[in-house]
Amino acid sequence: MKKVLITGASSGLGLEIGKLCEKKKFQVINLSRNKSPFQDIIVDLSDNESISKTVEFVKKNHPDFDILILNSGIMPLEKVGQIEFDIDNLFKINIVGTIKLVNELFTLIKKNKTDLVFVGSTASLKGSDKHSTYCASKHAVEGFIRSLQVELKNEPIRVIGFHPGGFNSNLREGIIKEGYMESKDLATLMMDILDLPKTMEVSEIVINRKKT
Ligand SMILES: NC(=O)c1ccc[n+]([C@@H]2O[C@H](COP(=O)([O-])OP(=O)(O)OC[C@H]3O[C@@H](n4cnc5c(N)ncnc54)[C@H](OP(=O)(O)O)[C@@H]3O)[C@@H](O)[C@H]2O)c1
Predict the structure, then answer these.
(1) 33 within domain boundaries
(2) Number of domains comprising the chain
(3) Ligand 1 neighbours by CB, cut-off 6 Å
(4) In terms of residue numbers, what domain contains 195?
(5) CATH value at residue 80
(6) How far is ligand 1, taken at its centre, from the CA of residue 75, in Å?
(7) Measured between alpha carbons, how far is residue 39 from residues 16, 26, 135 in Å?
């Protein structure tokens, strides 16, 4: 049975990925602040102590994970010059916590030949109005992905950059937007990518919204 660790499987895309993994009889372990329908490790990715405790717990109880999906993220929006939200917190959750988790689990990742999936965004690749800090954090995710791909070039470890455009989730306080993609469709795509033979790494995939 495959074991999958997913950050942020308590809602949105992570939740849908977890459901599909369970359908495939994978053991799903969620890492987030709130509980999920799966096995939970409660962690706040903005908190170093919480990350360290999580890493120790994983090393002790789930050292044999096959897939690690780095999906947690937040998206507060303000124009430059008017930003009042906690910028440090945004970077901690969207990139710093992710890097720390991967760094501290790296020995196991190498041992297990773990598939790594990073949920970036189309904001990893372009800028947009009001999204400056979010885009900056997601560009950092892309930088980390590309560098890891270089570092792991000769290892049997796939590093997948998954970059969706807007989809309905709790990211914008649960506001459903017409014409936005659905997280379950994106989750299906991710599972298809993971199902490919280990000899195939989809290094980067960009999924844009399309008007119908
Ligand atoms: N929705 C979109 O339009 C869109 C587009 C492109 C990319 N994305 C990316 O897709 C990913 C999933 O987001 P989503 O849209 O599915 O939003 P969501 O429904 O809000 O899910 C976000 C997940 O991140 C977790 N999270 C937030 N703060 C955290 C923290 N401090 N520590 C640990 N986990 C934390 C949340 O869990 P807890 O609150 O339980 O901690 C939640 O499970 C994010 O990386 C997002 O940037 C979203």
Answers:
(1) yes
(2) 1
(3) 7-8, 10-14, 32-34, 43-46, 71-75, 93, 119, 121, 164, 166-167, 169-171, 183
(4) 3-207
(5) 3.40.50.720
(6) 8
(7) 15, 12, 31
200 lies in a domain?
A: yes
Residue 212 lies in a domain: no
CA-166 nearest atom, ligand 1: 3
Helix axes 48-61, 97-104, angle to 10 degrees: 30
Q: pLDDT (tens digit, 0 to 9) for every residue of the chain, 212 residues total?
A: 999 999 999 999 999 999 999 999 999 999 999 999 999 999 999 999 999 999 999 999 999 999 999 999 999 999 999 999 999 999 999 999 999 999 999 999 999 999 999 999 999 999 999 999 999 999 999 999 999 999 999 999 999 999 999 999 999 877 778 889 999 999 999 999 999 999 999 999 999 999 88
What does each C-alpha distance from 163 to 140, 186, 206, 209 come to in angstroms? 13, 10, 5, 11
Question: Is 122 part of any domain?
Answer: yes
